[in-house]
Amino acid sequence: MLDKISGDIMLSWGVKRFIIAFIAGALANFALPPFDFFAVLFISFPILVWLIDGASKQPDKGFIAARKPAFITGWSFGFGYFTSGLWWLGNAVLTSGEEAYWALPLAVFALPAVLAIFYGLAVVLARTFWDNSIGRIFALSASFGALEYLRATVFTGFPWNTIGYAGMPVPLAMQSSQIIGIFGMSIITVFIASVPALLATKKGLKPGFIIAGLMIAAHIGYGIFSLSKPLPENSGHILRIVQPSIDQAEKWDDEKRAEIFKTYLRLSAEPPAENQERPSVIIWPETSVPFILTKTPDALSQIADTLKIGQTLITGAVRLEESASGEADKYYNTVYVINDEGQITGSADKHHLVPFGEYLPFESLLRSIGLTPIAETFGGFTGASKQRILELGNNLKLLPLICYEAIFPKYSQNDELGLSALINLTNDAWYGDTPGPHQHLRQAQLRSVETGLPLIRSGNNGISVVTDAKGRIIDGLALNYVGKLDFELPGRTDILFNHTQRNLAFAILLLISFFIAFLFTRGSVMKS
Question: Nearest Cα to 315, choosing from 264, 248, 386?
Fold first, then answer.
């Protein structure tokens, strides 16, 4: 039965082949948040393997034409995966008003079509080492790992929903990322998910399942070991996250700004629960202040009146840098630290901006035809030249990750900086009640695991959480809930590998996988 199904898939062509690949890719999204149904990958990736089996090279054609069947197969799978996984970006466009509607097809179809190119290239690379043995499983997993790394790097990178996240539905399954990172986990995930394809021919079936079983045992075993190690005591710092759930359509409405600001002040001033200490640090989400803070001294005065003696506010806001030379003013997506006297004592600007969201690539050209960034309230943003640490005193040092900076492992490096925690300020109200906020949370959660630092995540409409240094959610506020969350900051823990060492471990795993694939391919060629 299975050999007939695999044969039909392998021999499919034209529109039928595209539909099969698209559906297989789309199904894979059910392994991601909020569904976390990993087992669906045992359908998606075997189908992809069988499709690649039928995407044979055409040696009588040129270099590119000969690889076209493999590329189209991988691209179709990727188009299904990214369309199904990122459709909610259209909600951000619709929330932005009619002037941003031009970006709707770009967000819903064009972006997935571009991202799918990486999966198309992954299949082309894998097909280079392809045969009918277990070697093709090594080739496919290694190729996905390599191209996922490139997707996170080239053209500023966009590693959202890297396939490795599908193998990490719970903290127990996240701990391996301390060693091989998210891209190494992509190799492991694709290998394990693809092994059932061997059931169709039975060739390489036993070693395939043994290797996959050993991978699962090592993966889960290390998770058990890591989570069994006791964490240091809590830091003693009491913090509060404020989650106001401001409607994105009203956020920059002139008539609503004063009311919105009062909502933040009211939630910040609420007394702690009975028998709990007053928080020393209050945290507002990304761009929570609905005006230019430095141009509104009365707002700083109101903050000072709200804060108790010794309290500090961390808030997201738009920062204006006025030009003295007649050039255009610059706007930054900023995190401010404000003391109980209303004085700004520290700040950090967003380093990695969202293309088309916060700035326009090829800005002069695109603006000349009437296009603007989606977040065009103040004009396009400028990115900071480097990251900054927020030092609040009392041995409290936070590494800020503004919005989608949290999806990039390279911005969450814990290299002897004496950091206390990661702090992710975001505004996921753009995405509405969709999978987007859940996916964003999972990716931020993994940064905590990789760095051995607790995560403080403050979102306008959620999902706001605090995790321990192993990525376990200690407490949180649900999506669209209005309220506050008081907590004691967990302690940090030592990590086995730093960011550079994790990349090295990924590279070694990648090379080993390609080498094994090469050995099988070489053996098949010699036999033929």
Answer: 264
| Residue 455 to residue 371: CA distance in whole angstroms | 36
Q: Does residue 350 carry a catalytic annotation?
A: yes
In the set 251, 403, 405, 484, the catalytic residue is 403
Please report, for residues 44, 238, 485, 490, the alpha-carbon distance to residue 396 in angstroms, rounded to integers and kept in the order given. Answer: 45, 11, 19, 12
How far is 449 from 446, CA to CA, in rounded Å? 5
Give the other-Cβ count within 10 Å of 391's Cβ. 15
Tell me the domain boundaries of the chain: 2-228+501-527, 238-492
Alpha-helical runs (H) found in 87-153: 89-95, 104-105, 111-128, 135-151
Is 308 designated active site? Answer: no
- Which residue in the list 148, 251, 286, 405 is annotated as catalytic? 286
Measuring CA to CA, which residue among 295, 351, 285, 300 is closest to residue 319?
295
Which residues of the chain register pLDDT less than 70? 57-60, 62, 95-103, 325-326, 356-379, 414-416, 523-528
Task: In whole angstroms, give the CA distance from residue 158 to residue 414.
Answer: 22
Of 464, 94, 401, 466, nearest to 245 by C-alpha is 464
Instruction: Give CA–CA dist 212/230, Å, rounded.
Output: 30
What's the pLDDT tens digit per position in 331-341?
Answer: 899 999 999 99
The gap between the terminal CA atoms of the chain, to the nearest Å, is: 29
206 is catalytic: no
Which residues are CB-neighbours of 366 under 8 A, at least 6 positions away? 360
Residue 90's beta-bridge partner residues?
A: none
96, amino acid identity: S
Q: Distance between CA 332 and CA 335 in Å, rounded?
A: 9
The pLDDT tens digits for 314-373 are 999 999 888 776 677 888 999 999 999 999 999 999 988 877 666 556 555 555 555 555
Nearest to 179 by CA among 454, 513, 511, 509: 509
Its CATH class, for the domain covering 238-492, is alpha beta
Judge whether 449 and 171 are in contact, CB under 8 Å. yes
302, 318 contact by CB (below 8 A): no
The Cα 407–Cα 421 span in angstroms is 16
Q: Which of 251, 350, 470, 484 is flagged as catalytic?
A: 350
What sign results for the dihedral spanned by CA atoms 194, 196, 198, 201?
Answer: negative
The answer to whether 286 and 402 have CB atoms below 8 angstroms apart is: yes
Sheet holding 455-459: strands in order across? Answer: 390-391, 397-402, 421-426, 455-459, 464-467, 473-477
Type of residue at 116: A
